[in-house]
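Case study B.
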Amino acid sequence: MLETVKTLRDMPKEEYYVPGHRTCAGCGPALVYRLVAKAAGPNTIFVGPTGCMYVANTSYGCGPWAVPWIHAQITNGGGVASGIEAAYKAMMRKGKYTGERPHAIVMAGDGGSTDIGLQALSGMIYRGHDVLYICYDNESYANTGIQTSPTTPWGAVTTFTPSGPAVPEGKRLWPKDNAQMIAHGHPELKYLATASPAFPVDLFNKVRKGLNAEGPAYLHIQAPCPKGWQFPSNKTIEMAKLALDTGMFQLYELEDGKYKMSYMPKERKPVEEFIKLQGRFKHLKPEHIEKIQNFVDQKVKAIEIEIAALS
Amino acid sequence: MGKKRLISGVVATAEAVRLADVDVITSFPIRPYTGIMSELARMVADGELDAEFIHADGEHAQLSIVYGASAAGARTFTGSSGVGVTYAMEVYSPISGTRLPVHMAIADRTLDPPGDFGSEHTEAESCRDQCWIQGWAATPQEALDLTLLYYRIGEDPRVLLPQYACQDGYFVSHIAGEVEIPDEGQVKEFLPPYKNKHSLNISDPMIIGAQIEPEMGPPLQYQRYIAIQEARKVIAEAYKEFGEIFGRKYSPFVEEYMTDDAEVVIFIQGAHSVTARNVALKLRNHGEKVGVVQLRTLRPFPTEIVRDVLSRFKAVGAVDNSVNYGIAGDGGVLLSEARTALYGLGDKTKTVGFVGGLGGEVITMEEFYKMYAKLKEIAKTGKVERDSYWLPYEL
Amino acid sequence: MNLDVKKLFEEPSLIQITTWARGVIENKDARDVVFALANAGSKEGKYVQAWENYVDLPDRVGVPVRAYARISDEPLLSKYVYENEHPDVVVLTNEALVKGNDVLQGMKPGGVLIVNTKRDPEYILKFLKDTTYLGTIGCIDATEVAGHVQTLSGAEGATDASGIGVGVGAVLAGAVVKAKSIVKPENVLSSVQNEEACRYGYDEVRLVTVNTTFPEFKPAPKKPLGPEDLPFAGTVPSVDKENEKRITGNWRSERPVWSKERCTNCLLCWVNCPDSVVVYKTPEAADFTNLKYCKGCGICAEVCPTKAITMVPELDFED
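Model:
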């Protein structure tokens, strides 16, 4: 069992995601990776599907992990992790491996989790593999130079959703909610939570709860991206906080069939406060922002109703 | 000694998998290979085999899961047919490039469209250049033996490459024949436990599959190239030892049938080679100097052996049970590779292609008769009128 | 055959221009310099090409990236290469790039270095390790006059919707042609959006001659990696405390400076560092951060509740 902590000071000092990687200055996913590795500890195997956290971390011919790490395709993080877990199960049962069973963690981006790798994730959870699957959600295919993914917000500019006279708003689709998709319809799921680097202790503890759960667990962690969202690299934490304070992202967990909100802003801020600081939204007109505000209002309401019903 | 049973190729394959004591199996249903997995599922349910039997979410997932499992040190088994084989295409190169000796059974099926359960080698041959060991079994007995041989060859520390053990769908996979099933002691002697060279083990942590820059491309590709070169030697050794332990002796690369004084031969792989042999035997009874050269190992292609063997004949007909639209010579892979192997030897041996059995249609004895007749004509006149003939329309 | 291969493939009229920049934030500026110069060359009927360093992509915020142009009176022989191995001109869109990057590597004798900086050429020279072949250095404050343009448009070989030479790149392209007459100034002016900025660069660049005589130029031949130079299947051991194959201290344009007195040891800087470089604070801690890897993102200063951390330009430090 990995113990949960109360304060920053209770976290271990040891790092398993160490200095020396080609992630952006101010990279949200790198910060998430560091906190996940710290929480998981040395008895961990990471599976890294293609995405920023593969390419930026391992370029070139090296990597910043003190623990085992293996590449997966962007399509198959859930599959590769299933295989590792199944191998250890079989080898331990048959006496071919006698050590402690390592944790298996998938660190996949939003494309690898909610789009091209969604089937692999769903299959892994459906089959009950004891793996912690983490989606670090930076809201785009960032590694290929910022293209829209299913979690890119409506109205955001990416290189596949530019804003122009014919398409003034940029992206015209509303984002997928992967945590909700996974939470509903996977009876083998043992733990699910959303998290944010805005609350590192909460994030740390959710990783540990996910690993302690005997069976599949899913964490959806929002990870601000200075390149894709176009904000200065020192504003990563501020962006993460504003996303929560405006309701653009929400923190909750689903444990033993019960929902619990992890953070509720005392008074929700208008989404504009989040939007105005980011280059990806700078083309939006007031009517566009209003649309986003309405979407967020409805989403927040829906989650609150669900949580009230299932808590 | 083992015992004899009347079983199909799918059951024979499953028996071999059981004997190999695999740890992780990944399944997904598609005809005609499905029976292998049903058989293995039964063995697991009955307690005959202790393995994780995983219901993968598609063929791509099957290959993805065994990639992870093999990297973690497990002996793995998977398989597929037809479009299932091509659906998993993304994962073949990562598996061989990571040097994981994953084993995959392919029971051939025609690619869509239209939907067709019949056997063609097209799907498996389309994966031939992914640095997997690859060859065809022509009978259920060969299917069992090939499975054991490929685990042994692929897991050899000098090789560490994955393997496609192919069998013709329906013909081999579904028609039961007599198969001698070896006993566990023999298999233990032949097949040592799998030891992965990587470590997804926390006591010796590794980073597997890091990105590289272009200058690291040549050395890494060259490592894989050396491995498949090295496999030729290991294949020969493994077949030799297989014969000593199990008493069934195969020629590891090409099997010659009635070739001693043959003038013309059919060059072929898989189930249809059995028909070719039967036709050759009949023709021999009438004094025709014809034979069969059966290719056992398509990858690594035994270039020198094929050259030495085929160059002894006046005419060679390469029979391809696959479509390779627009390929040089308009035949198939076997024609192209036979011609490449013979390159530089002059015009002594004439080569011609026959494309047949498409969609799983039977290549009939009459068709083989026509092929031999055409080859005899070529041998006599020394003239090759066209590169290839599509059966039954062009011959 | 027994030909002198080196001589056979010589390209005496080939001019190689290399621009260094910070990834993402200055990527456009680097691209602008090389495209403006190449377009100008094209107008004069020269043979040209321009591109971004493919291995530097995908670029990350702050990572040193390079963009290249090749301009020649003769048809280009060596068209498909990854890098300019022997630049005639090197341009830095950010002064701090002189630290930790071998920007003059392979430079041809008498080469030119243009730096976007407020500082004097003499001060910049202090940071350059080997200036044997450097002929001229020029400094110009391009950011001041042209401002900063950041865009994702134009990356990965696509068209830059913001146009070529709207910002810093225009100034630097102007400075380049002042220092070395590769192409005519009027052709550069007509190749950029912001002509005024380009003219400013041409007029105001402070040029200083560094060397007038040069030892013989003998570049070492590149030795390709062999299969034995890489581990089995490219698999490498996991690291312990740091990944020394990817040192990132040279990404920093600003350095966090810590006031021990103001620090309340709250650990927010420590926990929020994406690069795991902020030292875990104890009352005895001497260093704030591991400068070998600190990318200078500034998160630590931003989250500090007591303003105990300030970001200071990296070139203020001569270490």
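Chain B has a mean pLDDT of 97. The remaining cases will be described in the next quarterly update.
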